[in-house]
Each structure stands twice: as C-alpha cells, then as structure tokens.
Specification:
two-stranded antiparallel ribbon; 3 helical TM bundles of succinate and fumarate reductases; 2 strands; 10 helices
C-alpha cells in the first residue's frame, strides 16, 4: 500500500480523493454564503454560522479538511515538479503542441497558486477573526422560537465586503477556482475510475457546470453584498 501512494498513480489518486472532498466542502460553504443574500439583517446566516460553529461533527471534520488541503497542495506540487523534470526543456514548447488539451489543464498549477492565494486572504479576513482574534460581537436572534445569543458573523462578513479591493480579490479568486475545478473535477473522477470513452465527455460537462456554478456563485455573493447590502 505504501508503494502505491508513493507512485505517480497513487499520488494522483490521493490528490483526486482529497480534491473531491474539498469540492463537497465548497458546496456546503457556498450554500451557507448564499444566506448572505437574504434580506433579514443576517439572522438566518448567523443561525447557520452558529450551527456550523457548535456542531460536534463539523468540529471533527475541520482537521480532516485542513489535512485535505495540505495533502492536495503537496501532492500537486510534487507531481508538477516531477512532470517538469521529466519533460526537461521540452516543457516550454509542449503546451503549444497539444491543441486538444484545455487551457485549464495546461495551467492547473498556476490556477492552484491563484486559488491558494485567495485562500490565504480568505483565512486572514474571516477564519482568523472568527477563531483567533475573536472579532465578533454577540447578537440575539430567534432560532425555532427561542431567543439565542450568537456571534454576529454577518456583521463581519458584511463589513468586509464593503471594501472594493476585497470584492475584486474574491471575484478573481473565484474565477481562478472555477477554471481550476473545470479540469479538476472530471480529471479526479477519471483517475479514480469513474470514466471511459463515453463518460469522459459527460464528466467533462459535469465538471464544467459544477466549477462555474461555484465560481460565479461566490463571485456574485461578494458583488451583490457590496452593491445592495451595505448600510
């Protein structure tokens, strides 16, 4: 088993598994962020954020999520460097000789760096303030008829999206994420065996739809918050 995960195929397999795991997390994250567009002063978003912050299952999953990101990044870097070393000088010309290969496929590592940079900004703007510096004020909301004091996550998110540069970073990062996933989703499914000559095209379409749904979704949330939800 150790030989498998140290091989090129094993590394691609593990990167695919962690990548699909992260895609599921992104769906959950996008669903939560969509609540920012409900014009209720942030009550529903705060209730959902409180649930996520206090749910024991979510707390258990957080270390696995962080580990998934780390493994995905390390393995992607390792495979990219190995491929570049194997190609040698030919790597500079090979991209232009493969017209059937998508732009995203040729630039997965660059797109990955873009997404990682976006992730660093996201962590600094939100996770650090949620978990480390505790820059959230308490607010009373109604949860199933019960008045509950929760942290006002909505106020922090709303204030952050009032800054144009943050919105621009989010749009650029989200578009980079969409390009990255447009190749990554179907490639991961193919690596773990859910593909053949017929399903390859179908999974490619599914991957593209999933990728741009999430990329445009995150972008629109930031833009609409900036345009219509500022006091």
């Amino acid at each position: 088993m150790s030989n498998f995960f140290s091989s090129s195929i094993g590394k691609k397999f593990l990167m695919s598994i962690t990548g699909l795991f992260l895609v599921m997390f992104l769906f959950i994250h996008l669903s939560l962020n969509a609540l920012l567009l409900i014009d209720d002063g942030g009550e529903l978003f705060n209730a959902a954020a409180h649930f996520m912050a206090t749910n024991p299952l979510i707390k258990i999953m957080e270390p696995f999520l962080a580990l998934g990101f780390i493994i995905h990044i390390i393995w992607a870097s390792t495979i990219t460097l190995q491929n570049q070393k194997a190609r040698g000088k030919d790597r500079y010309a090979s991209g232009n000789k493969t017209p059937d290969v998508s732009w995203a496929s040729k630039n997965m590592y660059i797109l990955g760096i873009t997404v990682f940079s976006f992730l660093v900004v996201h962590i600094a703007q939100f996770w650090v303030k949620f978990k480390i510096t505790k820059e959230l004020t308490p607010v009373d909301i109604d949860i199933a008829g019960v008045h509950t004091e929760v942290e006002n996550a909505y106020a922090l998110v709303n204030q952050t999206f009032s800054m144009l540069w943050v919105v621009i970073v989010y749009v650029v990062g989200s578009i980079g994420l969409a390009w990255h996933l447009s190749h990554g989703v179907w490639s991961a499914l193919q690596t773990i065996g859910f593909s053949n000559t017929i399903w390859r095209k179908r999974w490619s379409v599914v991957g593209t739809v999933v990728a741009w749904f999430m990329g445009l979704g995150f972008s629109l949330i930031a833009i609409l918050q900036y345009l219509f939800f500022q006091s």
